[in-house]
Fold this protein.
Amino acid sequence: MMFRDQVGVLAGWFKGWNECEQTVALLSLLKRVSRSQARFLQLCLEHSLADCTELHVLENEANSPEACPSVEGQGVHVTQAEKARDTCQSMRQLPSVTSKSG
């Protein structure tokens, strides 16, 4: 089977999964890439999302005090750094995979 055929099969599976399943599959694959591959993908994503107004609106809404009234006034404020730290901690709890360092 040619590489493009394999990619097509994978893309078909991916399309059939819900967002959570897609996210888990992507994270599993991303944990296997070298640092240079990861950096390239980071730059591609940043470029792709730079002008995504919808995403910026959703992030602002999600981070507004009105979005979480149960914690408003309780001194709860989650910074981007805290979110990143929590994400990294969650990623470390996923099963590890054998990968090449880049």
